[in-house]
Amino acid sequence: MPLISVITTCRNAQNCIKKTIESVLAQDCRDFEYIVMDGASTDDTVAVARSYEDAFAAAGIDYKVFSQADHGIYEGMNNAVRHALGQYVNFMNADDCLYTSRTLTDVAAVISETEDASGDGCVFYGDCAAVEFGQTYRFIKDISVMEQKMPFSHQSVFASRKLLEKFPFDESYRIGADYDFLLNAFQSGTAFHDLGVRVCKVTLDGLSSVNILNTFVETAAIQRKHGIDLYPGDAYDKKIRSLKIKQFVMDRFPRWVIMLIRKLQRIHRGQNEHC
User: Fold this and answer.
1) Is residue 155 within 8 Å of 90, Cβ to Cβ?
2) What is the pLDDT of residue 70?
3) Average pLDDT of every residue of the chain
4) Contact, 10 vs 36, CB < 8 A?
5) Stated pTM of the model
6) Assign residue 14 a region: left if phi > 0, alpha if psi is -120 to 50, beta otherwise?
């Protein structure tokens, strides 16, 4: 029974999954397994993933590749958890990677040293470097904002498999089921621990990073489900109007304008450009 299960859920990721797989293969830790859960890709994703089977076997790492149709990434993540044996589970998306070859060694050391008083286990979270428009910066990590927004990168999370089985991802969400899971765990009294480890480097070109309007709508719906109402009265409508303008800019303006806007936003938030 490994301490950690690293899971990559993907579909039609033949052009980017190598980077993710190779970052896992490079780990000097051996107390983990790696699962690639493919969503019935129509390209060569499965062939690429299976081409690494001999390399993982030679390294002594348990490596499994599955492919089955699903209705979205969160169904794929739930499917993968059913195959996982690790005590803690990390989801590393295709095109993202573990930060260094020592990442899992450092994470395993912290998990092993942290006493777990709960039968359901804990949630550990670490640091994340985000890459956007060719610039690398520190992803915000702040557990105190849990009820306002996603408090850290979900790729930096190592969640107890028991918790993932107790609170499976809500497959009705397209963008924020990982945030919904964290709120479920948080409001149930689960202990959250900062690893103090740089876990991953992620590429911010996914659905939630480019569709700010739909991300807000779904996030607000998740918060209301958990009894959190940050936009009472007409505040919600005002926020929607503001985001529609921002979404228009993201969709229509030249790339350099968007890059400048995002850079100014990062400066305002106090995020370092070189993480």
Assistant:
1) yes
2) 93
3) 90
4) yes
5) 0.90
6) alpha
